[in-house]
Design a protein that fits this description.
alpha/beta; Rossmann fold; 29% helix; globular
């Protein structure tokens, strides 16, 4: 039986750097190719928000957007609390993850309160790393992408998303986080496109909340095959034998 799902995309104009707002489209397409319907609602303020949603996505942004985005998110905190209580699923990338955590310390030492959705704390007072990375995710699957990270993130609950293989000096081995109804990564751009197994995980969790099983078909297999080739090229560029 076809199910209908609503995806809220938060502040896509401010938090959509390098295609990171595409998480909404990728998960929507994953669900549609399983025979379901998914609509995307862009949330620029409380007036745009439906009372209930199934999935919430937030992308990344530049450091210049920390103040403006944090100010706009304040007006959405009560809405976020209601969505969390209704067991919505959350996907956050980069700066979006930082702002949806408990606190964010800026490079200048200012403490910015987070929205409190993710059990994590971000600290931007350490250096920046930019480059390709790869490793095994929480289910032992090869995962890869491009990371442009400033600072570090402390996970208070849950588990890391990926254990990076031979990360450059100063970059933590643990990347991202996975918790109950929570997914976050610092991998830039549409990380779910390069790692569609994560989109399948999220879609499967959303379906399971309604007592449904995912139907993985030829589309999903074809997408994973193409993404696997792209990840393999990254791994070769990094000099890994795999």
């Amino acid at each position: 039986m076809t199910q209908w799902f609503t995806i809220a995309r938060v502040l896509p104009k401010r938090l959509g750097l390098n295609g990171s707002s595409a998480s909404a489209e990728i998960v929507a397409m994953t669900l549609r190719q399983m025979g379901h319907e998914a609509s995307i609602v862009d949330i620029h303020g409380p007036q745009d928000a439906p009372s209930t949603v199934d999935i919430v996505t937030v992308g990344s942004g530049s450091t210049s957007q920390i103040g403006p985005a944090a100010t706009e998110l304040i007006g959405l905190v009560r809405l976020f609390q209601n969505w969390k209580l209704s067991r919505a699923h959350w996907i956050a990338v980069g700066m979006g993850w930082d702002l949806l955590g408990e606190t964010l310390i800026t490079a200048g030492g200012d403490v910015v309160p987070g929205a409190g959705v993710f059990p994590s704390r971000a600290d931007h007072r350490t250096g920046r790393f930019a480059g390709e990375v790869h490793g095994l995710d929480y289910r032992g699957r090869e995962s890869a992408g491009y990371i442009n990270q400033i600072g570090t993130t402390e996970i208070l609950e849950g588990q890391s998303l990926v254990t990076l293989e031979s990360p450059p000096e100063g970059l933590p081995v643990a990347e991202g986080m996975r918790g109950e109804n929570l997914f976050a990564t610092r991998l830039g751009g549409p990380a779910l496109a390069l790692n569609p197994h994560w989109a399948l995980d999220i879609a499967s969790d959303v379906l399971a909340s309604r007592g449904l099983e995912p139907e993985i078909g030829e589309f999903h297999q074809r997408v994973e095959a193409a993404a696997g080739q792209a990840r393999s090229r990254i791994i070769r560029r990094l000099g890994s034998a795999r």
